[in-house]
Design goal:
Blueprint (H helix, E strand, L loop, with lengths): L5 H8 L3 E2 L4 E2 L6 E7 L2 E9 L7 H12 L6 E11 L5 E3 L9 H10 L12 E8 L7 H14 L4 E5 L7 H5 L16 E3 L2 E5 L14 H13 L6 E7 L6 H9 L4 E6 L3 H16 L4 E6 L4 E2 L6 E2 L6 H9 L3 E4 L4 H9 L3 H4 L4 H21 L9
Parallel strand pairs: 4-5, 7-11, 7-12, 8-10, 8-11, 12-13, 13-16
Antiparallel strand pairs: 1-2, 3-4, 5-6, 9-10, 14-15
Length: 383
């Protein structure tokens, strides 16, 4: 809606009363990070950690209040919880809306304690994380083409761009516009090349920085899973944020992952960081489906000479060392770069190219692993 401002949103939220504290959530300075894009509104509500599990009605009331504003098409409100550390400084816990807790996740990972029950994403059979220990290894490009490879295999596929700070999926898929609300106040995922996709890049402007703290990011990610009308999917690919911080750990703990794919380039320094991602998934007992060696070789388009710019075979050697499969090697090729920049991913637009075939071969292996694991019959022992 033209003319909708932060002030309009805050005025609507001024009518939402926190009865326990005796004031509006605006006057109590509980509303943070209001973000507008057209008719889409997002914001956070900070609450005490102890009250977090009981604050869902307040969150829903805030969403409803903003939804009543003329021209608003969707609202996403995230509860975040604040707790005091032993030293007395403010320490952010994970979002209260989903009940996740970074400190609990860390403790469970360290002690081997079973995590809390993970939220079910209705209609989604398998969720697969695509991750890397560091940025700059082409993880998002691999995630997009892996998802499209699964589409080419006849699967119903969704793609969640979980990189809140640097969403790439809108550009990689060439999607513009904003998601529309459904009748039950969820968001319809955007679609391209037979793939359903959701990203914060559809909600906030491309050049707008996301100045959010970790708990806000985690809450937004969980709402993108919970409040999007994914409908029936064979696979949901999650393009994870790079690294192994709180957001990645909490996502690994809170999302019912069928497995993880690690993306790395061949050189030793990238593999060092890839090992961190591998170890994180091991600690939270997420199955490792394998490693993809990206930018594996460079073939000169003029003379066809093959050059190993970043080395070669490092990811395969690492996979053998830890006992997982190297799912495939993707070349460093100008066609991948050009189609990615143009929003016409190579797996969808040049399906007969060697590069697209490499992605499809990886997708086929991933599907065999997750579908085979799901269909394993129970072992019957007769004594």
């Amino acid at each position: 809606m033209a003319g909708l401002t932060d002030r309009d949103v805050l005025a609507a939220l001024h009518t939402v009363i926190d009865n326990e504290r005796g004031g509006s959530i605006v006057s109590l300075d509980m509303v943070k990070g209001v973000t507008l894009r057209g008719g889409n509104v997002a914001f956070m509500i900070e609450v005490d950690a102890q009250r977090g599990p009981h604050m869902e009605p307040l969150r829903k009331a805030a969403e409803d209040a903003v939804m009543r504003l003329p021209g608003v098409t969707s609202v996403s409100a995230v509860l975040t919880a604040e707790r005091a550390s032993g030293a007395g400084a403010a320490e952010k816990a994970a979002p209260a809306a989903a009940g996740s807790d970074v400190q609990t996740a860390r403790r469970q990972a360290a002690t081997g304690q079973a995590p809390a029950a993970k939220p079910f994403v209705p209609g989604v059979k398998h969720i697969v994380a695509v991750a890397s220990g560091k940025g700059g290894v082409g993880k998002s490009t691999v995630a997009v083409n892996l998802a499209l490879g699964l589409v080419a295999e006849g699967k119903k596929v969704g793609l969640l761009d979980a990189d809140i700070y640097g969403p790439s999926v809108p550009r990689l898929l060439g999607i513009k516009g904003k998601p529309e609300p459904t009748g039950d106040k969820r968001l319809k995922p955007m679609e391209a090349y037979g793939l359903k996709a959701m990203s914060m890049g559809f909600i906030v402007p491309e050049d707008s920085p996301m100045i959010w703290r970790g708990p806000m990011v985690i809450g937004a990610l969980e709402q993108l899973l919970r409040d999007v009308a994914w409908d029936e999917l064979d696979v949901l690919i999650v393009d994870m944020p790079p690294g192994t911080g709180d957001a990645q750990l909490t996502m690994a703990q809170r999302v019912p992952l069928a497995g993880a794919v690690i993306v790395s380039t061949p050189q030793d320094i990238a593999l060092l960081d890839a090992r961190k991602g591998i170890n994180m998934f091991k600690k939270v007992e997420v199955p490792l489906l394998g490693i993809v060696e990206n930018m594996s070789t460079f073939v000169c388009p003029n003379c066809n000479h093959e050059t190993h710019i970043f080395g070669h075979g490092g990811a395969k050697a690492e996979a053998e060392k830890i006992g997982v499969e190297c799912l495939g090697e993707v070349p460093l090729h100008i066609a991948i770069r050009e189609t990615s920049d143009a929003g016409t991913p190579i797996t969808a637009t040049q399906p007969d190219s060697p590069q697209a075939k490499a992605y499809r071969a990886i997708a086929k292996k991933v599907w065999e692993k997750i579908d085979g694991a799901a269909r394993k019959a129970p072992r019957i022992v007769i004594s």
